[in-house]
Amino acid sequence: MTAGTGADPDGAVLTRPVLDDGPDLWRLARDCGLDVNSPYAYTLWCRDFAGTSVIARDADGTPLGYVIGHLRPAEPATYFLWQVGVAERARGRRLARRMLDRIAERFADLGVTHLEATVTPDNAASRALFASFARDHGAEPVWTPLFEHRHFPAESGGHEPEDLVRIGPLRTAPDPS
Ligand SMILES: CC(C)(COP(=O)(O)OP(=O)(O)OC[C@H]1O[C@@H](n2cnc3c(N)ncnc32)[C@H](O)[C@@H]1OP(=O)(O)O)[C@@H](O)C(=O)NCCC(=O)NCCS
């Protein structure tokens, strides 16, 4: 972090989302090619799950990326990462990793020991992201099938299957070596 500005060395500013960020989360989901949930869902997320989410912006305020997630109600030591997206022009700068690490900084206080997410089988970038996070937090990613075609309504156009990745137990800080 650059002292005073709250910005990363490349100028990205990572913050907890507030209600006014809801529209930009929706736009980022759309522009990143993710499943686009309702505008209401993103704004609600900013109200109820801001503590386990992050939005990244350029120094001029342009949105660059986001992570939204929550602690699983039935298993609050598990953080479920629902969506991660980085604008195309900002990819390959470790922004997704920095956003994940920013949330993981809160894990010790929250009592979180594991991270989960689901990924479609062909999403190499996302798989690499979680492998990278697992490696630097001293854990192996374990992949298992979770959601299948039949779990999504065919009349919605269908949906690729989603594999669950579970990572943990997590070291609370990345290994500096
Ligand atoms: C997946 C995504 C968020 C990665 O964002 P990013 O900021 O470019 O990723 P990072 O630069 O932080 O890279 C993190 C790790 O993943 C690897 N990686 C990133 N993109 C990759 C790609 N296209 N192919 C292979 N590896 C990739 C990096 O090399 C790095 O690994 P390392 O630590 O071993 O070097 C971004 O590609 C994206 O928004 N994709 C579209 C939306 C999506 O699919 N989201 C995930 C599903 S919820």
Can you characterise this structure?
This protein is α+β, with helices and mostly antiparallel strands. The chain has a single domain, classed as Aminopeptidase (3-Layer(aba) Sandwich), CATH 3.40.630.30. The chain contains five helices and seven strands. A seven-stranded mixed β-sheet has the order 1-2-3-4-5-7-6, sandwiched between helices. A hairpin with a 2-residue loop joins β3 and β4. The radius of gyration is 16 Å and the shape is globular. The N terminus is likely disordered. The site of coenzyme A has 22 residues, from β4, α3 and α5.
Task: Tag the structure with descriptive keywords.
single chain; about 180 residues; alpha+beta; Aminopeptidase; 7-stranded mixed beta sheet; 7 strands; about 25% helix; globular; disordered N terminus; binds coenzyme A; L-2,4-diaminobutyric acid acetyltransferase; EC 2.3.1.178; Ectoine_EctA; acyltransferase; diaminobutyrate acetyltransferase activity
